[in-house]
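Supplementary Methods S3. Input chains for the assembly prediction are listed below.
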Amino acid sequence: MSLRFSRRQFLAGGLSLTGVCLAGPAWSNTARPSLPIPPLADGTNGEPLDLTIRTGLWSFKPGVMTPTLGINQDYLGPTIRTRRNKELNLNYHNTLTEGVSVHGHGLHVPGNVDGGPQLEMAPGERWQPTLSIMQPAATCWYHSHTHGKTGTQTYRGLAGMMIIDDDEAVSKELPNRYGLDDLPVIIQDRTFDAAGRLVYSLEQAGEDGWFGDTAVINGALSPVAEVPAGKVRLRILNGANARFYILAFADNRTFHKIASDGGLLEAPVPMTTMEMSPGERCEIIVDLSEDTSAELLTFFEDDIDEEGEGIVSGLVGLLTGPGQSAAPASLLLKVARTLVAHTVPVPERLTTIERPDASEIRKTREFVLEMDHGEDDRSHAGNTGGHGTHAGDGAMTINGAVMDMSVINERVERGVWERWRIRSDQGAHPFHVHGCSFLVEQMEGAAVTPDQAGWKDTVVLDDDDWSEFVVRFDHLAGDDFPYMYHCHILEHEDQGMMGQFTVTDTTG
Ligand SMILES: [Cu+2]
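Predicted structure tokens for the full assembly:
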């Protein structure tokens, strides 16, 4: 039973939109909301940023108020800005009636400030971590990582973007005017009931996790952003619980991917379609100097069949008007000639990534992510030679073990390069590791493509073949506050597809 069609078949089938072109915007302009831009919380001067976790009411749909969760606002949180070699001081206050922990996804910080499930704030409690930002410029994010409740809390709104700047990235003269030509784009999917309330159930989630039926971008349905007539940078986060998205512009234009999870690529990569799994970030540059608008379409990967025909039928659906079930959500970038444009060309070289020599790889670890179907269905399940709590029926496991906060599954030595190999017994999963960025060497058995060759903290794997990366951990995480590795399908994570590891100077 294959949940998703084989990703390699899919990739082989091709994603070209060639020959399919839209005559105009997918939605009537008048019906479209403005892209909400989360306020910027600038932490570069070291002053503590107050981050109040609270309940809210947010209007996803016109005239309908939806009960939500947010940080300093009704839904999602501010975009936190920080800079390499600075201290970032955060002052979280949990005003909910349930515990919350908040993880800084993509940050290279020690385990005791990583925000894993051990660092849960009880109702009314504060958490005031000081984060020494040592890593290169990147688009990261922060979100609920509460034990067993990551899926529901993130779904209701406990997430926000985090931007790290550094001198190198600034010297490249990339668009960096936040909210003007440097836009946060947080893509999620949500289901609403007749009263407009969010619908979510971990217990009723399918095997692939909880899929919403409606895509939202920064909490809005197919919004519009006014942008200058030049180069525009989109910092795109797949903030979904479980959904993989395929992104493409309606006119099939080429855009340039300049950064992945952990920072700049060595060189811009021209692309027309891009897949993003939950937790991943991509920065792209789209050039609007010759246009009046451009429309970024958000396709659900699971709607697309092996031959990529779903994309075509989706576009055809758009041509027949809004409200079609096949119509994807979109972000319309509308050019305002009065805004000062960024016209500096994108540099041909963005950064240098130093890869370790093969001789520096001191250890290899293997991880198998499993969807346990019970004893009768285990024969095909592959390697389960792990340790830790054994899984029961229906559990989601890594190396045969469900997440157990009292068990350290792996012990890693600081400052040493390792190779991690990951695959699943069934379907595609985004594998995320805390406290690091890594360099992918192989994805599902295939050589890494240029757009995946930069620093990453989340990699897609499946049941066809191994995904592999090399990684080195530079910060400490002890037994009290270990790091996590886990599937970033949040329902899989909450159902146990997660493990704990320490990073120490002696692994004795
Ligand atoms: Cu998974």
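The helical segments are 7-13, 150-156, 167-171, 309-319, 490-494. Residues 1-6, 8-29, 316-325, 375-388 have pLDDT under 50 and may be disordered.
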